[in-house]
Amino acid sequence: ASPLAVVAGLGHAARRGVVIRNVECVEKAAKLTMVVFDKTGTLTVGRPEVVEVKAYGLPEDQLLALAAAAEKRSEHPIARSIVEAASRAGAEPPELESFTPIPGQGVVAVVSGRTVAVGNEKLMKGFEVDTSRAEKDAERLRELGATIVYVAVDGQLAGILAVADKPRPHAREVIETLRRMGLRVAMLTGDNRTTAHAVARQLGIDHVIAEASPEDKADEIRRLQRSGEVVAMVGDGVNDAASLAQADVGIAMGRGTDIAKEAGDIVLVRDDLRGVITAIRAARGIYRLIK
Ligand code: ADP
Ligand code: MG
Question: For 111-157, what is each residue's pLDDT tens digit?
Fold first, then answer.
């Protein structure tokens, strides 16, 4: 095996937007048995939009204004979608007094003297907010693949926002190709189970691990490895850094966060999911030369 052939292989991949940051991962990438994808921002474009608003006992624009005020300083894509929806509705967000992000759950903020919690079911449970009033609407929207964001004001449920995100270009085709290459494919997400299954169904994925916290994500990868899988994890976010590091091969999306890119062995600089295929084919080619 000539080192020059290896360098040529790495260069070939790099010209296709796939940067293999360490040669040690090439053998693992050639021997993969499973590829695990994060959902939000990886299998979906990560630019969610608010598609429905249900307010309980207050006007919809007021609900949006409160939620937008609370989310103003969050960098989560869901937060951005809420701030945009409020501005589209012409709702003026009141002043934000304090703000605490809760990773994998949402935010808690003080807005005009009121405590506003915006996030998922887990966040509501933590604050003992009764969400039963919204459950029928929430389940209907989840079955369409939407993510439900609950808004509580001073401990009372004030409404829900349904947020939806489009699949990334080529997602379905990449998943099909991986399967044809003999690999198992799974989705790993912090989002709700029903929502995750709805999105997975649209993409042709049948193995779904949902409602996973950032630490759970790394544990799930470890569990798969212990069951004998050689695992690649594909992700984009801060919440994926631990699982990218845990995986045999971490693949970071090019427009993902710096933390994800640093944790990745391979970076898809063109931010194109087809890079996953290119990376694995390149690794198989290089490995044939060096083994
Ligand atoms: P994913 O694994 O899908 O990329 P995250 O781990 O970032 O998702 O978040 C898990 C869930 O927590 C999200 O699906 C969302 O319901 C909720 N969440 C996290 N941050 C926020 C936020 N700033 N506002 C509202 N909901 C949030
Ligand atoms: Mg993500």
Answer: 999 999 999 999 999 999 999 999 999 999 999 999 999 999 999 99
| Element counts in the chain: helices (H) and strands (E) | 12, 13
How far, in Å, is the centroid of ligand 1 from the Cα of 40?
9
Average pLDDT (237-257) is 90
Question: What residues contact residue 50 under an 8 Å CB cut-off, 6+ apart?
Answer: 64, 81, 82, 84, 85, 161, 162, 163
Q: Looking at per-residue confidence, does 184 or 259 come out higher?
A: 184
**Predicted structure pTM score:** 0.88
* Domain 49-164 superfamily per CATH: Calcium-transporting ATPase, cytoplasmic domain N (3.40.1110.10)
Q: Give CATH 3.40.1110.10 domain extents, the chain.
A: 49-164
Give me ligand 2 centre to Cα 260, in Å.
10
Dump pLDDT digits (tens) for 208-234.
999 998 889 999 999 999 999 999 999
Domain 3-45+168-290 has CATH 3.40.50.1000: yes
Question: Residue 166: which of 78, 82, 271, 44 has the closest Cα?
Answer: 44
DSSP annotation of 44: B
Q: Residue 134 gets which letter from DSSP? A: G
Q: Which of 38, 191, 240, 248 is catalytic?
A: 38
